Amino acid sequence: MILAMAGFAFEDLFIKMLSAYFPISEVIIILGFTGSVILLIIALLQRAPIIHKDLLNRHVISRTIFDLLGAVFFVTAIALTPLSSASAILQITPLLVTIGAAVFFRENVGWRRWSAVFVGFIGVLLILRPGFGGFMPASIFALLGAVFLAARDLATRAMKVKLPSVTIALYAFIAFGISGILIIPFNSAMIAPTSNQIMYFIGASTFGVIAYYSLVISSRIGEMSVISPFRYSRIVFAMLLAIIILGERPDSFTLIGATIIVASGLYTFIRESVLNKPQ
Q1: Across the chain, what does the average pLDDT equal?
Q2: Distance CA 211, CA 96 (A)
Q3: pLDDT tens readout for residues 247-272
Q4: In this structure, are residues 123 and 260 in contact, taking their beta carbons and an 8 Å threshold?
Q5: pLDDT by residue (tens digit) across 61-88?
Q6: Shortest CA distance to 105 belongs to which of 151, 66, 63, 70?
Q7: CA–CA dist 230, 70 (Å, integer)
Q8: CB count, 10 Å around CB of 106?
Q9: What's the N-to-C CA distance of the chain in angstroms?
């Protein structure tokens, strides 16, 4: 799980650097279809089904749509806002999943976890600071990304199909690339990348695939109550990369807000593990 979070942080770093030279649509198109090719090769090597009737399952379709929307909004946030703040806001996703589980799956969420969710949103407000001078409207894209990624996780929980993870991921990446084509009219003209920039694209795609597979492996062989809290290591890697490589200097509000969000999420995980512990 820690390797997965480090991989996602490095992928975000490459995306941030590429967004300084290319329109967001071009970044999404190249990353989406490059990842699709890599996953297609992996699927063929594993002899996983490329076309299957379960791909038309409504939960699979919903998951794919939510996944691509979450990715588009978060990539946009990375391009338009500091990497440190975008990554911090993304950590609200597990708390949003808690809300969704209570609303859509009728899971019993007690006052302690509702309190943790409320405190977590206070952390988000500290980072966003709406109505104040430090407010960046583009940060809303990071929040929208977190909302759709939480919806993706809920759709994944509702899935009852036995499709291999690589097949589901393949179509998510294809949809992600197609979404980049759809937003071309809202972006500037596409630019031919240099050899160095091509290496950045390869780096982003490679780290993304490594991160995805590390996440799948950890989820399949580890207990969720144990490995889930390590998801928050992503914010540590993101902050370090943003400070060391990009020269960002997160202000005190961002650091305090990120700490509150992580603490709220960790408390939620701990509380869930206590409630689900066999008597």
Answers
A1: 87
A2: 22
A3: 999 989 899 999 999 999 888 888 77
A4: yes
A5: 998 899 889 989 999 999 999 999 999 9
A6: 151
A7: 21
A8: 8
A9: 28
